[in-house]
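Board notes (copied after class):
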Amino acid sequence: MKGFKFGLQKVLDYKETLLNEEITKIQQTLTNIQKTQKDIENINFRKGQLIKKKTNKINQGISVENYSQFSRYSTFLHNTEKQLKSLQTKQNEQLDNLRRVAQLRQQEKKTLEKLKKKNLESFTYNVRKQEQNFIDDIVSARH
């Protein structure tokens, strides 16, 4: 409505910007979690392949050197998986924190929007009241 100014519009715009930033962070974190999950699945696939190769080699007769290599690679895969799972846990915690912050930002924004709506309703009521008074003054001045 023309003439209406919400005194906290800049604050509302700022809160909306903060909310959008949190949403972007959430999306980035979700992408990182998905990447980490794919990396974990890849490690598990490689562990499965290693077990198959190791079983084949044992059936064919395995040298001590090959067994040692299998063992080192298996340890490497296990440690890598452990690190990725730890990273995934931290990412999930970060995601939970980001969601809580975004929820707070959303509540702040909604509160300001409700206040803006109430102010607009009050402004509209006052304008209509002034218009009615103006019309009443014109009508009473003609009589």
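Comment from the instructor: The chain has two helices and no strands. The chain has one domain: 9-142.
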